[in-house]
Design brief:
Number of strands of chain B: 11
Structural class of chain A: mainly beta
Number of strands of chain A: 10
Largest interface: A-B, 45 and 42 residues
Order of helices and strands of chain B: EHEHEHEHHHHEEEHEHEHHHHEE
Helix content of chain B: 25-40%
Distance between the termini of chain B: 15 Å
Shape of chain A: globular
Radius of gyration of chain B: 19 Å
Strand order of the largest sheet of chain A: 5-6-7-10-8
Largest sheet of chain A: 5 strands, mixed, barrel
Radius of gyration of chain A: 16 Å
Structural class of chain B: alpha/beta
Strand content of chain A: 35-45%
Helix content of chain A: under 10%
Low-confidence stretches of chain A: none
Distance between the termini of chain A: 30 Å
Mean pLDDT of chain A: 96
Number of helices of chain A: 1
Shape of chain B: globular
Oligomer: heterodimer
Order of helices and strands of chain A: EHEEEEEEEEE
Mean pLDDT of chain B: 96
Chain lengths: ~140, ~400
């Protein structure tokens, strides 16, 4: 397994996220009181500041809102450059930043994309694949 | 509350000063501004510094400078920090000191040296600033990738071509050619921009800011003091601030082509100044990339959403156009020492309103607007200036 150039911190709170991701599932937190879903997972609801939150598995489908191909990368990421990062609006109405498979010229705004997992160490990382047919 | 005016400005030409220590560079700008304002040591009540880069060897930089100058202060001495807004906040805090009566004369000043480390190494630091370190940074996000995503969406949503964005860089280079402080003066063409190497697609090298060293000082005073110092003080007429409660990207989907914080901050500043967008004669904006200048000219109310790039292409934001923008050359050509870029913008606004801009002077300029920002324009600080009280 490849080692991530820059690894996130695995904490007592966010460990379920990384454990689920290792199993192929993208998850986040939802407020039990106002039902707001946020990403990344947070210890409180950013809408109502309620601490009563629950874990939720996301479907892993969405649309590519926008994207860029990073050609001038920070030093730790230079071996991976160029790479595409994008903003995906998930069907749960949550926006996330992610890597997108493919090149800049092969992508179109609003195209459907689907979750995929890159098995890396110390934690896996998600990315999204463009879909040809509408999901 | 006292009314606030600018009575002196000083700045070094933007460029590379790797052999000059930060404090020596700053003192060049400081002494020029103090001389321009006709203030003496005993007149100065407050120094408000933009926080220098972490690479700056001297820590506690503000008190070090006051010690170097042997300058006692009875108003305030502080260093402020707020991402790319830092220089604008230095000015804002200095203005508050005057308004509150803590100081009769306050100086906003700073130095930003970028060229001590190479770009890829520098980005190791900025990649931890421009996203959530656990959920964004691991993907390899860079500061200007956010602007590139604004650009991808803008080009898709509106009937705008890539060359129209490139024109903004060409326009700013032609302005920079008339500015003795600018880092890059050699004329460029739209084809040069399109042929330059990609940095964050669709933005190329000439769409994005260079790395730059610079230093600026701005002397502020209450209006009575200002008039005793010079016949042509420049008055601060309006101020607006807004932060969206977002760090780079919102978890809740929202527009990528409208800078909502700039719209809200501008409305507040216009209201305070009693002015409207069409009353502004010159705008000096914090726009690291071509797309940012376009989106700002829309957010500030100069053009309708989706029409800013074409308006720039038709010359509306060039010298001689309806609303000249970045008359000093902007971030891409004047240069971009981020911690003091907003102070360079205020420096240019003041020179324009004093009719001291030579061949790049906006004829009959009476009002000027400046911006500074945090993040992907998640937050905006707007100031409006006039040469009429």
């Amino acid at each position: 397994m490849d080692e991530l150039p820059y690894a996130p911190r695995v904490t007592k709170f966010n460990r379920p996220f990384w454990d689920e991701l290792r199993q192929g599932r993208l998850s986040t937190t939802r407020c039990r009181k106002c039902h707001h879903i946020t990403f990344p997972p947070k210890v409180l609801c950013p809408e109502c500041w309620c601490r009563d939150i629950e874990w939720l598995t996301l479907a892993g489908h969405g649309h590519l809102r926008s994207y860029t191909e990073v050609c001038a990368a920070p030093q730790p990421f230079q071996p991976e450059a160029p790479y595409v990062i994008g903003l995906v609006d998930l069907i749960e109405d949550v926006r996330i930043l992610t890597r997108i498979a493919g090149t800049y010229d092969a992508l179109v705004p609003d195209m459907p994309v689907q979750l995929a997992i890159r098995q890396t160490t110390p934690v896996p990382l998600f990315y999204f694949n463009p879909q040809q047919e509408v999901v | 509350m006292n009314d606030v005016a600018v009575v002196g400005v000083g700045a070094v030409p933007i460029g590379s000063y790797t052999e000059v220590p930060d404090h020596e560079l700053l003192l060049e700008a400081f002494l020029e501004a103090v001389g321009d304002a006709n203030v003496e040591k005993r007149d100065i009540d407050a120094l408000v510094f933009s926080n220098p880069r972490p690479y700056t060897e001297q820590r506690y930089f503000g008190t070090f400078i006051a010690g170097y100058l042997g300058l006692p202060l009875n108003g305030l001495l502080t260093e402020v920090l707020g991402n790319g807004m830092t220089g604008g906040l230095a000015f804002d805090v200095a203005a508050q000191q005057i308004a509150q009566g803590n100081a009769r004369v306050a100086i906003a000043l700073g130095v930003s040296k970028e060229l001590q480390v190479d770009t890829a190494e520098h980005m190791k630091l900025t990649m931890r600033a421009v996203g959530d370190v656990d959920f964004h940074t691991p993907f390899g996000v860079t500061p200007i990738s956010w602007y590139a995503m604004n650009a991808t969406r803008y080009l898709h949503d509106y009937d705008v071509e890539r060359r129209h964005l490139a024109h903004v860089a060409v326009k700013n280079r032609s302005h920079a050619g008339l500015n003795p402080l600018a880092q890059f003066k050699k004329p460029i063409t739209v084809q040069d921009v399109l042929d330059s190497r990609p940095i964050v697609k669709p933005l190329n090298l000439l769409d994005v800011p260079p790395r730059s060293d610079g230093a600026v000082a701005i002397v502020l005073a209450d209006v009575d003091t200002a008039r005793s110092l010079r016949s042509d003080p420049i008055y601060l007429k309006g101020r607006g601030f807004y932060h969206e409660g977002v760090h780079m990207t919102s978890s809740i989907p929202r527009s990528l082509t409208r800078y909502a914080s700039a719209e809200r901050a501008a409305i507040k500043a216009y209201e305070e100044a009693g002015l409207a967008p069409w009353d502004i004669n010159v705008a000096e904006v914090y726009a690291p990339c071509t797309i940012v200048e376009v989106l700002l000219t829309e957010a500030l109310g100069f053009f309708q959403p989706g029409t800013g790039a074409l308006a720039a292409h038709e010359g509306a934001t060039s010298l001689g156009g309806a609303i000249p923008v970045s008359t000093d050359g902007g971030c891409t050509s004047r240069g971009h020492p981020p911690m003091v870029t907003p102070l360079y913008n205020i420096h240019e606004a003041v020179l324009q309103l004093r009719y001291q801009c030579g061949d790049r002077q906006v004829a009959d300029a009476n009002t000027a607007l400046t911006t500074a920002e945090l993040g992907d324009y998640n937050s905006t600080l707007v100031h409006i200036f006039s040469n009429n009280r």
